[in-house]
Amino acid sequence: MAERRDRPQTRQRVDPTRKVAWEVLRAVEEQDAYVNLLLPGLLRDHGITGRDAAFTTELTHGTIRRSRTYDAVLDTLAPKGIDAPVRDVLRLGTHQLLAMRVPSHAAVSTSVDLTRAVIGHRPASFVNAVLRRVAAADLETWLERVAPPYGEDPVGHLAVVHAHPRWVVEAFRDALGEAADELPALLAADNAAPQVTLVVRPGLAEPDDIAGLDGEPGEWSPYAFRIAGGDPGSIPGVRDGRIGVQDEGSQLVAIVGASAPVDGADDRWLDLCAGPGGKAALLGAIAAGRGGSLVANEITPHRAELVRSAVRLLDNTDVSVDDGRTLEAAAPFDRVVVDAPCTGLGALRRRPEARWRRQPSDLESLTALQRDLLDHAIDLTRVGGLVTYATCSPHLRETRGIVEATLAARDDVELVDAATVLPDVPHLDRSAPYVQLWPHLHGTDAMFVAVLRRID
Ligand SMILES: C[S@@+](CC[C@H](N)C(=O)[O-])C[C@H]1O[C@@H](n2cnc3c(N)ncnc32)[C@H](O)[C@@H]1O
Questions:
Q1: Catalytic residue numbers?
Q2: Domain boundaries, the chain
Q3: What is the per-residue pLDDT for 208?
Q4: Which of ligand 1's atoms lies nearest the C-alpha of 277?
Q5: Which end of the chain is more exposed for a tag (fewer CB within 10 A), N or C?
Q6: Ligand 1 centroid – CA 299 distance (Å)
């Protein structure tokens, strides 16, 4: 009997949505899995669709985003330690109790059933006892108990309340600069699911292609259309590549890259870091409308395949698979876009696990790569041509730090005011020559853009 109780009870009735969420949490912890890659397949395999799929997605994403905050709650209730598989059941239960509208009895009993089904009988009463104590207070009350007081440790307080690592809170505070009082709003925006935005690629799609869709045009990109919901993959134009799914911030990066004023010839364009190809497809489509061509380069072969797929309708766009630090070209380019590999701290809304996986030490290798890529991009640009440098991170070492170090080291480039290229976009710090977008102000990822002109 005892042996049977210690094994998972395979015949135990278990809610498939919660079981899938638990499996994703385990894979994130044990195998460094990516939620966005793993979850859709598991939903399909288990036949979870519609409202159940939306519930599972919110349960998984929300729990992982807030996992360290929930750990602070759970550790006060179980100070002797919690085994990792049990902790994941408790994190899911805690999210249902404190952040979803799941009635307490349902959140607790389904967590107990889940424990019996996937771990065994023994921890079930422990899970029951801990979750009943979690349910005894609401989120606000728990946060007051487990977060350091704001007055004593503002960064530590915000880190727990908004579930971000301390170093990320500090990086955002530094990037906001004089607007540091917006930090709580920025952190809160990072915990909300982003709206799905389409890019209606010019010259490929017609207004008719989105006519029947429930949504509204984007605010600043003429190509953006924000949809109210549903699966964008079911839209015919998306399936055949005339329309894409692309954050409006990413569209604005491509628009700056394509529109900052250049003197003279303007028909040879390069996207140095193109995978998976969202910006390349928009840049290529804009270039095609002006009679220009694009080389879309990507170092990783499987990501270059994604670029090929994204630009498959554009006969002015060639894909190359090369290291952007050493790529050779027959002739220099009029425009080069460097959408550099970065920490991705500006897109945390999209990747629930990323905030906990990224480490400050990642900055060393990334900033060295960013410097080298920007340097080589300048080498590949003709005199008078433009280099657009972008990151989906607002971290100052990856943004201004890279641009300023490059300007200090070279006398053949000057800074162009990128913000003037987007005169209608509000909330840009127009005293600086850069564009920095923010989730809490623009509803976009926190994209950074700088433009440099080759002068010698
Ligand atoms: C931020 S992503 C680019 C996103 C892309 N522009 C888009 O909009 O879909 C950076 C890309 O740079 C690629 N990369 C990394 N190191 C590189 C290198 N040395 N040369 C060229 N590409 C590189 C990465 O594989 C990744 O696909």
A1: 392
A2: 2-140, 147-189, 253-454
A3: 86
A4: 9
A5: N
A6: 7
Query: 167 versus 11: which is more confidently predicted?
Result: 167
253-454 CATH fold = Rossmann fold (3.40.50)
Q: What is the largest CA-CA distance in the chain?
A: 83
Task: List the beta bridge partners of residue 216.
Answer: 226
273 Cβ closer than 6 Å to some ligand 1 atom: yes
Buried b (16+ CB within 10 A) or exposed e, 396-426: ebbbbebbebbeeebeebebbebbebbeebe
Which residue from 282, 299, 317, 338 has its CB within 8 A of the most atoms of ligand 1, so it is best to mutate?
299
Phi, psi of 89 (to 5 degrees): -60, -45
The answer, yes or no, to whether residue 92 has pLDDT greater than 70, is yes
Q: How far, in Å, from the CA of 325 to the mean position of ligand 1?
A: 11
CA 183 – CA 174 distance, rounded (Å):
10
Looking at residue 2, its pLDDT comes to: 37
Reading the block at residue 373, the tokens are 């890529």
Task: Answer whether 92's CB lies under 8 Å from 25's CB.
Answer: yes
CATH of 2-140, one of 3.40.50.2300, 1.10.10.10, 1.10.940.10, 3.90.76.10: 1.10.940.10
Instruction: Indicate the helix (H) or strand (E) that contains 265.
Output: none
The letter for the amino acid at 78 is A
For ligand 1, is residue 278 a contact (CB within 6 Å)? yes
Q: What separation in Å is there between the alpha carbon of 198 and the centre of ligand 1? A: 21
Cβ(279) to ligand 1 under 6 A? Answer: yes
Ligand 1: does its nearest atom lie under 6 Å from the Cβ of 367? no
ipTM of the complex: 1.00
Identify residue 109 by its one-letter amino acid code: S
What pLDDT, in 10s, does the model give residues 222-257?
999 999 988 899 999 999 999 999 999 999 999 999
Mean pLDDT of the region 149-171: 98
416 Rama sector, left if φ>0, alpha if ψ -120 to 50, beta otherwise: beta
- Interval 145-155: pLDDT, tens: 999 999 999 99
Q: Which of 197, 298, 323, 343 to mutate to test the pocket of ligand 1 (most atoms within 8 A of CB)?
A: 298
Whether residue 275 has its Cβ less than 6 Å from ligand 1 = yes
* Confidence class for position 9, pLDDT limits 50, 70, 90: low
Q: With beta carbons less than 8 A apart as the criterion, state whether 114 and 14 touch.
A: yes
Cβ of 341 less than 6 Å from ligand 1: yes
H/E element, 286: helix 278-289
Q: Give residue 3's pLDDT.
A: 38
Strands 293-297 and 317-320: parallel
Closest residue (by CA) to atom 26 of ligand 1? Answer: 275
Query: Taking 90 as the threshold, does the pLDDT of residue 6 lie above it?
Result: no
Rg (CA), the chain: 24
Tell me the two tokens of residue 5.
């109780």
